[in-house]
Design brief:
- The protein is 33% helix and 28% strand.
- The chain has 11 helices and 20 strands.
- It is globular, with a radius of gyration of 22 Å.
- Bound molecules: flavin-adenine dinucleotide.
- The site of flavin-adenine dinucleotide has 34 residues, from helix 1, strand 9 and helix 8.
Amino acid sequence: MATGEVSVRCCIAGGGPAGMMLGLLLARAGVTVLVLEKHADFLRDFRGDTIHPSTLEVMYELGLLNEFLERPHQEVHTLGAQIGDDFVRIADFSHLPTHCRFIALMPQWDFLNFIAGQAKGHPGFQLRMEADVTSLIEEGGRVTGVQAETAEGGLTVRADLVVGADGRHSTVRTNAGLETLDLGAPMDVLWMRLSRRPTDPEQTLGRIDAGRIFVMLNRGDYWQCAFVIPKGGFERVHQAGLASFREEIVRLAPYLRDRVGELGDWSDVKLLTVAVDRLRSWHRPGLLCIGDAAHAMSPIGGVGINLAIQDAVAAANILAPAFLRGGISDEDLHAVQRRREFPTRAMQAVQVFMQNRVIGRVLKSKEKLSPPLPVRLLAQYPVLQRLPARLIGLGFRPEHVRMPRI
Ligand SMILES: Cc1cc2nc3c(=O)[nH]c(=O)nc-3n(C[C@H](O)[C@H](O)[C@H](O)COP(=O)(O)OP(=O)(O)OC[C@H]3O[C@@H](n4cnc5c(N)ncnc54)[C@H](O)[C@@H]3O)c2cc1C
């Protein structure tokens, strides 16, 4: 595609889960769509590898599930936690009313490459990599396009609708002047990889003890690990030194002693500054934000990708018929917000409750921990494990693909 000026019905800023899924769904319904992604490829640092049952159900509804699951992945059927000396199973996905009763773990770039491959099969779909959206074009109070910087020079895109799917540091939402409500978070997360041995436990689980939370996702030959620290606490961890950090990990998972040395320097440890926020209004005339651009989620439950995809499905269900009828009204855009605001607010309320009542307290505690009553009940009555499974696996009010393929 040449630089200069192009016109499409829908221009999506950001080729993450929200933007790529919306691009696929709109193109599949016969709407011309251009996705602008600022990076040259989808190979990014770890940004979450969880494909939840609700997303797998969307793949089923699109007729893509079998092909998708041929890609290398691991399947997580239950989630557990080691609290002090006790192991408790928290969630059991085996009873979900979906075709896949598990979370699939797959690198996000594999997932995005798969979606891109499918989308390119539709004539109305275009993806432009290395295209950094820098500003919005506005005429008469309405957003009518974007300006982007590409490797070949400036690009002007005119569109009936611009969608900001450019993540938690969204340029689109900033340029649109949309107001953000910050819900706060008492923690940040340090991410790292450690190799996994055949003799290690299978289970993907959290390890929780006095002042520490450590989550380990089984990725086959390695563990994707998350070490939760108090908000703004990275400087303190850094000053205490890498040897002390390695020792903290070993205290929670002693069998990692023979490989914590793989954390050779601090570049092997990535800081995720946790933010929980949402826009008061997700739209302006000619513009809509979805995914992290509309609502950054806490990592609790690993639901950010899931919500981003659900936003895309809801947006396509509402907007594709409007595009095909003629144009997009403010009422159509508001219908997307109305549809997705409740699931977002409800999930953020659960996350904020967990952050403040559980995680914040654990991080402050000095005593050895034991499972609190609600967690003991989950262990005692396994049927209760279906509830967290539903919350994590499907979320509130799951979306279904409504638009037929053209
Ligand atoms: C370290 C880490 C771990 C996480 N772990 C999990 C997890 O286990 N499970 C989970 O569900 N979620 C997890 N998340 C959250 C998850 O990554 C996000 O919620 C999800 O990716 C949101 O999707 P999105 O498409 O809205 O935004 P993003 O995935 O952020 O995608 C936005 C895209 O827009 C592009 N972009 C940004 N600015 C521009 C611009 N100006 N022009 C063009 N393109 C632009 C970016 O390059 C990116 O590709 C994690 C996040 C991080 C950072």
